[in-house]
Amino acid sequence: MTKVIELQGNPSLPKIFARAVATSRGRHGKGGLPDIQVVRRGVQVDPDALADYDHVCGFALREQLPATYLHNLVFPLQVTLFADKSYPYPLMGSVHLDNTLTVHRPILLGEPLDLSTWATNARPHKSGVQVDVVSQAHVGDELVWEGLATYLYRGQKIDGDVPERAEEAEAADGAGLIWRLSGSLGRRFAAVSGDVNPIHMNSVTAKAMGFPSTIAHGMWSQAAMLAAIENRLPDAYVATMSFRKPVLIPGTMRLVAHETAGSWDLALRNNRKGTVLVRGEVAPIS
């Protein structure tokens, strides 16, 4: 039987993060994924919080919620799941590999949202174990938004064969938008998202975790890339982002966006080296 954790309000993310981190050492991937669903009902978006988020990510101020803001709303549910004592994998050292967002129709400020999150599909990866975290948003009985976040737990083990990586076409390249990202970006996004992972906020901690400098949040990258084409997005679409390499800040990046028949091929590159940092696709839902 599914265990349901129902949140009555927006939890304190720093406290949940601290609990999840403090218990990371004792989590060794044994026992399989728990049958747990974290839910929060009747969520009303704070217009001021949305405006602050839009400002940091580059979205226009309007009544329609960005797809990535829905991820912002379910992220506390995800961390609550990770902090539960039955969740087998440690938060410390985990990596957000991919993020797919499905918008079934425009979601408007003022609509009450019922949110839910659960984990599924633990499988081997060459560097450990990857898990899909599924999230949904309903307005009444209507499914309006879905999220699929794939996390890698490095050094963990699970039975099964590591699948071969499928061949793919070259990422979009050429001229694009030049973004000069400041070293304060991680702290500013943490303030509007609640994601207080110190690798995004403090260069000392980032270096201790093996990064040469502070790194931007993956969800900032996805948000900013979608914001750049916001006025060209359809009412219903699927947006997939693959976080290939860290976006080091401060730094200068180049966003390349190619459109073909209503679909987008996106790439965020290091402007000097040309390295693909984030690769994305957006496809309309008919």
UniProtKB/TrEMBL annotation:
Record-annotated MaoC-like domain positions: 187-260
Pfam families in UniProt: MaoC_dehydratas
Family: Belongs to the enoyl-CoA hydratase/isomerase family.
Protein name: MaoC family dehydratase
UniProt source species: Flexivirga alba
